Amino acid sequence: MERDRLAAFLDQIATRYHLVAPVAEDGVVDYRRVDDARRVVLDELSTVPPKTHFFPQTEELYSYSTVTGLEIKETVGTPAAVLFGVRPCDLKGFLALDPVFAGRFRDPYYWSKRERTIIIGLSCTTVQSTCFCQAFDGSPVNGEGADVLFTPLEAVYLVEILTSKGEQLAAEFSTFLGTEGVEEALRGKEALARELDGRFIRQVDLEGVKEKADRMFDHPYWRRLARRCLGCGICTFLCPTCHCFDVVDENRGDRTGLRVRCWDSCMFTDFTLHTSGHNPRPSKTERLRNRILHKLKYHLDRYGLHGCVGCGRCVAKCPVNIDLTKVIAEIREVD
Amino acid sequence: MSHENPLLPRPATIQKIIPETGDVKTFRLTLDDAEAMAAWHHEPGQLGMLSVFGVGEAMFSISSSPTKREYIEFSIKRMGKVTRALHELEAGCQVGLRGPYGNHFPYEKFKGKDLLFVGGGIGLAPLRSLIDFVLAEENRGDYGRVEILYGARSYDDLCFKDDVLDGWVRQPGTVVYTTIDQAEERWTGHVGFVPAYLKEVAPTPENKYALICGPPVMIKFVMQALQKLGFREEQIYSTLELRMKCGIGKCGRCNIGSKFVCLEGPVFNMVEIGQLPPEF
Fold first, then answer.
1. How far apart are CA B210 and CA A114, in angstroms?
2. Most buried of A167, A168, A321, B167 (most Cβ within 10 A)?
3. Are A152 and A214 part of one and the same domain?
4. Percent of chain A scored above 90 by pLDDT?
5. Contact flag B249-A109 (C-beta cutoff 8 Å)
């Protein structure tokens, strides 16, 4: 596809699907429904990961009324959507979340959106200073998890159709796609991959980290690390693989209301606090250890998948510079 | 999606409220949908999520035995927001129920064995579902002697007095040892903490499983006492309870290391507990 046809392509999609793409508002780039392709921002990694589309920060589960007997009404209606511009690290984030919301108790809110969404991935053309997707077997041009992958080249986008959903979309919008110059574009993608490969500033070596994490639960390192943690939770809110939530009632005061779930964070004091006052993770040491071990060990133990995709958002946004890439290096070093 | 939506509570009605202590009530529920009630099945030790609409949801042990097919009971101490709201309800009120959740006591494995139950305070609730299951006529022959050691802070704080002081005591092959923390005029029974009383009673470990539930500190000392009495870790089970919001392994807060208590628990063998990080 010629690069200058992207806006027309997206506008066309928006006439038939909910088009969800990264847009900027008040300096924050996140994935929202867009009607006008000119609003789409593609020059950097979004501030908030696109998991918001499948697992929104606040999500209505059902409404209730106790006016005349208890009535519970499920919140239904998932529109068919196209999620555009998902970076390779965030695609891996979806793959990391999938098994959490699957399993014996399948989460219908997550999966109804997941199933009715066609994902268009977007290869990166730059490597940011906080990026480390390489460490977790990722790459700036890896389309795993997408239905279609767009790779921006000089004059065209290389459009790779990766799944049957992708084929469906390609057939629907075939007028935008050409078959000329595909060989050249594939070579262009390879060249881009090689070039970006050498641009990673952060070299993260995971060798032996899991094994070390398996036996350093009681290590004094965690206390040292947690000393400067503020417990603000930004690392969890911006993480593509964090899935913790709270369930609360929004009572209208007339015996009707909504039950909603909203993101929660294991970095908060009352996350695990029992009513009795007992708290299994009473201080920042336990809470930060839980987050780091979730990323490097627990998710891997449970699902056989890395709990981190190397997007670098937590590194970029931590107000006290707790840097997961340094933590990984330190875990390797401590006795 | 409703039949497959595990987050959607089913309407249930409180049939009866049995006051247990000053701050514990047993709520006897039935699901409003008769078919759903007939299809309801829980195992001893499993959990249920109760909703008071407009207030919230909270997870509780199911305290009735699965052999009581006509109702589902929860014995609940008045502690926080949801439990306070529950305590204000009356018979006939509706609540929401999700579940059952979690694993259960491995009662198949217990067949042919003697059982020792050690409970403290409201911790008797999850054990009661198994005690009544074992003592039920259809199951009694599968199990040996049943010993129940139960303690609470005071006479008033003893839960299930009808069972503890009367019903269970009358059952053949069953011994109940009851204790309260401090002496009271109206109490002629044993006085002292549960772990100390356990050492005094000194049950033998042969051909026996021990099942514990109570406050975390009691569980810890009871485990130590049992080991001193010769119980091996494999013979000891406990239930661990952590804060939960979903009950289905998604909300992330009941993890102990890589395990979710709502899925892999709440019942753990002491060998498993030893392998978990000490974060519960």
1. 46
2. B167
3. no
4. 95
5. no
Confidence of residue B2 (pLDDT cuts 50, 70, 90): very low
Kindly report the nearest CA distance between residue A320 and chain B, in angstroms.
25
Of chain B residues 56-75, which have a CB less than 8 A from chain A?
A: 56-57
Q: Are B159 and B75 in contact (CB under 8 A)?
A: yes
- pTM equals 0.94
To the nearest whole Å, the CA of A140 is away from the closest chain B CA by 29
- Let me know if residue A95 belongs to a domain: yes
On whether residue A202 sits in a domain, the answer given is: no
Judgement on whether residues A228 and A158 belong to the same structural domain of the protein: no
Q: What is the ipTM of this complex?
A: 0.92
In this structure, the answer to whether residues A141 and A255 fall within a common structural domain is: no
Do A174 and A88 share a structural domain?
yes
Inter-chain residue contact B53 with A62, CB threshold 8 Å: no
Looking at A164, A197, A230, the residue that finishes a domain is: A197
* A203 within a domain of the structure (yes/no): no
Low-confidence ranges of chain A (pLDDT < 50): none
CA B213, B217, B218, B219 dihedral sign is positive
Q: Does some domain include residue A140?
A: yes
**Element spanning A20, H or E:** strand A18-25
Domain that holds residue A142: 3-197
pLDDT in tens, B28-76: 999 999 999 999 999 999 999 999 999 999 999 999 999 999 999 999 9
Q: Kindly state the tokens that stand for B198.
A: 């356990």
Instruction: Encode burial over A58-86: b for 16+ CB neighbours within 10 A, e otherwise.
Output: ebebbbbbbeeebebebeeebeebbbbbb
In sequence order, the 6+-apart residues with CB closer than 8 A to the CB of A43 are none
Q: Which of B241, B254, B262 is nearest to B6 (CA)?
A: B262
Q: How many angstroms separate the CA atoms of A209 and A217, rounded?
A: 13
Q: Are residues A163 and A249 in the same domain?
A: no
Residues 6+ apart with CB under 8 A from A61: A74, A75, A109, A247, A258, A259, A260, A261, B7, B8
Same domain, A151 and A235: no
B222-259: pLDDT as tens digits: 999 999 999 999 999 999 989 999 999 999 999 999 99
A180 lies in the same domain as A217: no
Structural domains in chain B?
2-100 (2.40.30.10), 114-239 (3.40.50.80)
Tally of domains in chain A: 2
List chain B residues with CB under 8 Å of A76: 1
Q: Report the 10 Å Cβ neighbour count for A92.
A: 25
The pLDDT value given to residue B1: 41
Which residue, of A143, A177, A197, is where some domain finishes? Answer: A197
Angstroms from A314 CA to nearest CA on chain B = 19
Distances (CA, A) of B27 to B13, B73, B76, B83, B279: 10, 5, 8, 11, 31
Say if residue A114 is in the same domain as residue A253: no
Q: What tokens does A246 get?
A: 């709270």
In the block, which residue shows the tokens 């409404």? A63
Is A83:A118 a contact under the CB 8 Å cutoff?
Answer: yes
